[in-house]
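Chapter review: from sequence to fold.
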Amino acid sequence: MARCLLSVRQKRLRGNGHMKHDVSSGQKRANENLRRVLRLTREMLALADEGDRDRTDDSCGILFGILRDMAYRLRKLSQEECSKHEKAGTWEQETDKD
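The token string follows.
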């Protein structure tokens, strides 16, 4: 996080908020972790849907409802963090690995 703040300050000093700079290996790992959280939230939502569909009692419905709610909350926070990285110029788009 300190690295993100430092890069934002450096850009402001240069006067160009859209200037792209090299992304450090630490920042690349941070970005990949954010991508992993987003993938995890998709899995959480799929599990909540499947569990809710197959449940046999109300308490399971509550459990899967909480899972769904947490997935949406995590997704929102992760997307906000990705936006911060984009604005700071430290976000790199995922390249195709196939």
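Two observations follow directly from the output. Residues 4-9, 11-20 have pLDDT under 50 and may be disordered. Residues 28-86 form one domain.
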